[in-house]
């Protein structure tokens, strides 16, 4: 391919020029704004170089919200295109790029950072730690994810987006059938972000195993920490597979290797296997933290301890184990014979059992409780019936003989949206609303929040329920259009109307953030929800060192027992606190990674070599660097504590 | 009283939905395999309804009975760790359900992967169905004819489709006759179908294969065997022979209408099976252990 062809110059669509101008103007506005308000130093010192888990959590959060809207606009475009038969809003190529990027953005660049946002912010506080085990690596994780996400997003304006589905099955994703650089972006940006996630996995496992407050045995950890722990164990086992698969895919695309081609001994279905060996556990990487959030939210607002804590822990461990034994159900139709399909059917359906246990445990947590319908609680109780529908359709899909009829249809699309949206998106909004006062020191407006909830919950069902019927009526997924005679029209139109409602709901969510930032009272206590776990025992906003003295824990709900039984949490004297130094290295190294990825996407070998050297130089610099961190003096801690106590 | 009304409303909403389902393609089977699958779907819906109703009813009871606004201000919820009997019930019932559904699945999976039982004495009609961007080529080796984008089949006779692809992975699917299976470039998969009723059915590629995917469909016409034989004779007499050059032309990406040829491309371009295949999948392997087999066959000759 000639040099300029690779960059897709001149562009086929004027919309792309408009986007380029918009992106250029936005970047310019940010630069001018930062200069005018003299915020460059602030940005660098307080955010770009921070190693504080709370700040990193907030940066993850902002990125995730941005990506939520990017993926949401993709979704709207798809629903608009299929709203009526033979619509010409998008052409086939554009539609293929849109559903591909929708999938990748939502799973990899929205859901993943969202769970890491909450994990970063909450886990160290819940276990009474000062930070994660490796604060610098944590910053590197974030910046690698961020640069991966940015690299993926520029594909829209430079060179063309990937167009072979978020699963990127070969040989369709190979050079023969996918000739733009789109899939190169896919391979490299997910690789960069994935390395970040893998590092996070190691970091959080170490943090949770080694840095819990005295007295907090494993079976006294709050449920969200438990799910975070298991999630990261899955990450550490699953992500290396993705790393290898993407590496092999990159070799096929850039260096003419034949791992997944359909000739020269390549095996196209090897990609499908590797992808789903990572991809199925990935589903549980997303859903388990959501389960943790619901456990916290439901027990807080039912004003009761979690029912069946031990069986909850057992069920997440079992789910994590089974999540690695079911990947073949994603291609029952590959023709591996009834024996293999039967085995994977049974393992797949078996996951419903521990998941069912959790559902019933949440319901029984409300038994004899005193339920308050706050916004987080609304999402939690809305989640239960919707997710149940998603779960039972999952069991239906798990039955191989019937799956031959559902496979690759809208039925499947309906099913996984029925699990992922109430499971992940509802949980993230619930968690966001729940922990917002801890993050920012004020609460989100409950009234607007409830409006947003009802818009989202009702529109969700309007959007996705018709898809079950469309699937059973023979509508395959990923069809950019269909004929009038097919009869899919009315169902798809209902879906589009629902999608508009969802968009309104998410707009209300943003409005709520804006409104509350301006008008909400800053005069709230550190524990506005009357919550039960350790993170509410410190001030809001949380000081850099989290806890002035390390808490001593005697039960699962340490903070609740302090409030109700008068157990003392903070017994020790204030001592000087050791903290890690800020550093620009993770940010700089990730920027080099960005250029590295971009160079590989376009096969520009000279910058690729230079940046590869640069990445190793950064690592070498770090290994010779002497940095022992610094101490916060007793006086300073006492002053901060006094000030914060006055404030709250 | 209230609960009675609730159930009545539920029944009244469910009935029309269920009757509406009858016209959905997958639930309107025209062949034994699709019928088995439709039955499995109905069994699973009925079984899963137990779980859905249980969860919904329990949830509503909890939310109505234990909401804060209905309780005294000084009510303090008790600390309850759990109850082995209650937990055993809500582990036990799902286990029973999953065991039941597993038995159904295994039985029916073997069924739909084999020739339909009541037709097992009949000689199957073998059709090689291969896809190329974005077309379907149907070769009838025994009849010595080939069609593009349409498929004529006899009723009441087992059909054995041999699936493969010139290009991306596709999935061969005729919803009213049975579930789909992948067609891939480096192996041949086998799909057993049969039609009970004469009629016209929709067939399509269900696996995303690029730009022309949405229009990657074909028409299926089932007819009594005598009519089918007439059609075959007619094609042999009137259709042009398929040459290698012509076939290469057909493989070019794009959409074509319906075409008919005498002779098949299998003569000069055999399917990737047997010694031509890098690894063989699914052909009559109902009673073999697939895993061991798979690795054996993956070794290149």
What does this structure look like?
The complex is a heterodimer of chains A (648) and B (301). By secondary structure, chain A is mainly alpha-helical. Chain A is built from 21 helices and two strands. Chain A has a two-stranded antiparallel ribbon. Chain B folds into two domains: 25-62 and 84-113; 122-276, Cupredoxins -  blue copper proteins (Immunoglobulin-like, Sandwich), CATH 2.60.40.420. Chain B contains six helices and twelve strands. Chain B is elongated and about 90 Å long. Chain B starts with a helix and ends with a helix. Chains A and B meet through helix 5, helix 10, helix 11, helix 12 and helix 13 of A and helix 2, helix 3, strand 7, strand 9 and helix 6 of B.
Jot down its keywords.
heterodimer, A: 648 residues, mainly alpha, 21 helices, B: 301 residues, alpha+beta, Immunoglobulin-like, 2 domains, 7-stranded mixed beta sheet, 22% strand, elongated, disordered C terminus
């Amino acid at each position: 391919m000639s040099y300029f062809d690779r960059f897709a110059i001149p562009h086929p669509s004027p919309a792309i020029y408009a986007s380029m101008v918009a992106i250029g103007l936005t970047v310019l506005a940010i630069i001018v704004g930062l200069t005018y308000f003299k915020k460059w130093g602030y940005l660098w010192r307080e955010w770009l170089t921070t190693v504080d888990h709370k700040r990193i959590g907030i940066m993850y959060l902002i990125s995730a919200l941005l990506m939520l809207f990017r993926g949401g606009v993709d979704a709207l475009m798809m629903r608009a295109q299929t709203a009526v038969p033979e619509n010409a809003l998008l052409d086939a190529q554009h539609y293929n790029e849109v559903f591909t990027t929708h999938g990748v953005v939502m799973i990899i660049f929205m859901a993943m950072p969202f769970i890491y946002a909450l994990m970063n912010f909450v886990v160290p506080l819940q276990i009474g730690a000062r930070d994660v085990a490796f604060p610098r690596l944590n910053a590197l994780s974030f910046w690698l994810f961020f640069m991966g996400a940015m690299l993926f997003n520029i594909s829209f304006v430079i060179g063309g987006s990937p167009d072979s589905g978020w699963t990127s099955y070969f040989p369709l994703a190979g050079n023969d059938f996918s000739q733009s650089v789109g899939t190169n972006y896919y391979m490299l940006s997910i690789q960069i972000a994935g390395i970040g996630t893998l590092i996070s996995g190691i970091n959080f496992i170490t943090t949770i195993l080694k840095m819990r407050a005295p007295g907090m045995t494993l079976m006294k950890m709050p449920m969200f920490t438990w799910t975070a722990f298991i999630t990261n164990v899955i990450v550490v086992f699953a992500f290396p597979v993705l790393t290898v698969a993407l590496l092999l895919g990159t070799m096929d695309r850039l260096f003419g290797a034949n791992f997944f081609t359909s000739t020269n001994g390549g095996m196209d279905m090897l990609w499908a296997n590797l992808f789903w060996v990572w991809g199925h556990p990935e589903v549980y990487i997303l859903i388990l933290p959501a389960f943790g959030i619901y456990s916290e939210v439901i027990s807080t607002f039912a004003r009761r301890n979690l029912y069946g804590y031990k069986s909850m822990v057992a069920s997440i461990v079992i789910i994590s184990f089974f999540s690695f034994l079911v990947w073949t159900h994603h291609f029952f139709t590959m023709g591996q014979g009834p024996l293999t399909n039967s085995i994977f059917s049974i393992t797949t359906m078996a996951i419903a059992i521990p998941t069912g246990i959790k559902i019933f445990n949440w319901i029984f947590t409300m038994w004899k409780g005193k339920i308050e319908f706050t916004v987080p609680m609304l999402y939690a109780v809305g989640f239960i019936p919707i997710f149940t529908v998603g779960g039972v359709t999952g069991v239906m899909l798990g039955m191989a003989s019937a799956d031959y009829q559902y496979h690759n249809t809208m039925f499947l699309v309906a099913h996984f949206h029925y699990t992922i949206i109430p499971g992940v998106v509802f949980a993230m909004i619930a968690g966001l609303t729940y922990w917002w006062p801890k993050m920012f020191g004020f609460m989100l407006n409950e009234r607007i929040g409830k409006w947003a909830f009802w818009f989202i919950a009702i529109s969700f069902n309007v959007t996705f329920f018709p898809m079950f019927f469309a699937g059973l009526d023979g509508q395959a997924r990923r069809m950019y259009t269909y004929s009038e005679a097919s009869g899919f029209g009315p169902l798809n139109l209902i879906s589009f109307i629902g999608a508009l409602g969802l968009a309104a709901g998410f707009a209300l969510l943003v409005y709520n953030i804006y409104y509350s930032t301006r008008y909400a009272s800053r005069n709230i206590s550190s524990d506005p929800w009357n919550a039960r776990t350790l993170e509410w025992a410190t001030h809001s906003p949380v000081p850099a060192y989290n806890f002035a003295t390390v808490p001593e824990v005697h039960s699962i709900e340490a903070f609740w027992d302090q409030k109700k039984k008068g157990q003392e949490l903070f017994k020790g004297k204030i001592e000087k606190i050791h903290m890690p130094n800020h550093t620009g290295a993770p940010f700089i190294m990730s920027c080099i990674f960005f250029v590295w990825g971009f160079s590989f996407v376009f096969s520009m070998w000279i910058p690729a070599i230079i940046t590869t050297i640069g990445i190793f130089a950064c690592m070498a610099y770090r290994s010779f660097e002497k940095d022992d961190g610094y101490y916060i003096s007793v006086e300073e801690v006492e002053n901060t504590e006094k000030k914060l106590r006055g404030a709250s | 009283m209230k609960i009675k009304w609730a159930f009545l409303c539920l029944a009244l909403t469910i009935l029309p939905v269920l009757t509406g389902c009858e016209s959905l393609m997958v639930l309107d089977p025209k062949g034994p395999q699709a019928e088995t699958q439709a039955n499995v779907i109905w069994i699973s819906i009925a079984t899963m309804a137990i779980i859905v109703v249980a969860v919904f009813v329990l949830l509503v009871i909890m939310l109505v009975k234990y909401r804060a606004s209905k309780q005294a201000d000084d009510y303090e919820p008790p600390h309850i760790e759990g109850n082995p009997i209650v937990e055993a019930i809500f582990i036990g019932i799902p286990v029973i359900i999953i065991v039941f559904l597993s038995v159904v699945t295994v039985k029916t999976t073997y069924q739909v992967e084999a020739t339909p039982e009541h037709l097992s004495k009949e000689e199957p009609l073998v059709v090689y169905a291969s896809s190329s961007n974005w077309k379907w080529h149907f070769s009838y080796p025994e009849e010595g004819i080939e069609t593009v984008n349409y498929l004529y089949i006899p009723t009441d006779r087992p059909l054995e489709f041999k699936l493969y692809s010139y290009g991306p992975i596709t999935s061969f699917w005729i919803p009213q006759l049975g579930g789909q299976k992948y067609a891939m470039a480096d192996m041949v998969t086998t799909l057993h179908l049969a039609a009970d009723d004469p009629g016209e059915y929709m067939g399509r590629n269900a696996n995303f294969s690029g730009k022309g995917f949405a229009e990657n469909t074909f028409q299926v016409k089932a007819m009594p065997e005598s009519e089918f034989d007439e059609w075959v004779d007619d094609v042999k007499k009137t259709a042009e022979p398929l040459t290698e050059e012509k076939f290469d032309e057909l493989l070019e990406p794009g959409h074509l209408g319906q075409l008919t040829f005498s002779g098949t491309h299998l003569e000069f371009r055999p399917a990737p099976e047997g010694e031509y295949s890098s690894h063989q999948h699914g052909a009559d392997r109902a009673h073999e252990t697939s895993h061991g087999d798979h690795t054996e066959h993956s070794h290149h000759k």
